[in-house]
Each structure stands twice: as C-alpha cells, then as structure tokens.
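Appendix B, example 12.
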Amino acid sequence: MTNLILSVNRKLIKSKKINLLVCAILLIIISSACMAIGENAGDGATRIIADSDVSGMDESGLPVITDGSDSPTKAADFRIRFYQTGNLDYDEPTTLYSILSLGNPMVLNFWAGLCPPCRIEMNDLDKVNGIFNDQVVLIGVDIGQLVLLGTEEDGKRLLSELGISYAAGTTMDSGITESYGIFGMPTTIFIKPDGIIHRRWTGALNDKKLTELIQELIEES
C-alpha cells in the first residue's frame, strides 16, 4: 500500500514539473512577442513585416525606408475606388495611370483607418495638398482591409473625423503591398508623370518634410 502511495506521489510531482516547464516556455514566448512590439512602437510606422531596407533617420528625425535601388522603377497600375475625390473630377472607379495621364506628378499615400501613425500625418498631408494641389496629385489609398488595420468604414470614419479634403479611396488589388514594397504604414510613393517612382517613404511625414519632398518631385518631373 505504501509503495502504491509513493508511486502515485512521484507521478503527481512529475506531472507538476511538466506543467511548470510548459508555463515557463509560454511566458518566454509571450515576453519575446511583447518586446518585439515595444521595439517597433515608436519608430513612426506601423510595421507590417520585417524589412532590411531601413536607411535610418533623416535630418528632421523622421524614419525613412527607401527602395535601395538606382534603377528606374515603374509604378504598378491598379484600380482606385474613391471615398472622396477632392479636386479630382472622377465619379467612377479609375486607374492610377488614368490619373497620371493628366500630366502631373503624384504623391500616393497608403494608409489605414486603424493605423496610428497614419492618423498623425493626415492633417499635415491635407495642409500641404492645399498648397500644391494645382501642381501635384495627392491620393490617399486605404489598404486597411488588406493589412488587417481596419475596414472601409474605419477609413471613411477617420477621414470624416479629421476633416480631410484631399482625394482618398481604396483598392481591392491584393498584390498592392508587394507591388509597392509596403513594409509598414503609412507608406508614401512619389511618382513622376511618366509613372517612374522617384522616391518611396515609410513612416509618418510632417508638413515640412513633405513640402521638401514634393518640391524635389516637381523639379525632377
């Protein structure tokens, strides 16, 4: 009887040790995940996937990711369905190159309704658009539904809440993140009238930096 009790006790102790080991492993995994989130939380962009193309901080203290290539890259064409058209005369869904055919360079801003850095930069984008809207086309493309950062309703709600006036809409082209090298949100693409990508920027832009980049785009177009 005594041997039976000792055997049962040993099994219980062994079982508890296994449970403690499992809990310890889970805690390590959870801690690692939280540390990873914390490391990305303050870099000015909501990271979608890890990237190895970070150029660091610019002179304004803003994080920037460039395409790392000197060779010209053509912007991929895709359909845009507008939430609001701003000063563009489009009532129906259209394509990127249809808008580029008007002859102006374009600032293409990929954003999402539940992306905090996107919210931070939108009023500055709106302000700068008011200055350059006769020389450059600014379009905000909501891809929240493609990167799990909100629905179309979240996007429309954010535009309304902030009183944004520039053209904004969405696309259902699921390959857009790969086509434009979108590693984080927001991502802004500066495109010449011929469709050549002049610059790619990941992270929130302020009005000063955006003005500088738009003037550079105009000069190079």
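The chain is about 40% helix and 20% strand. The chain has two domains: 1-41, 54-220.
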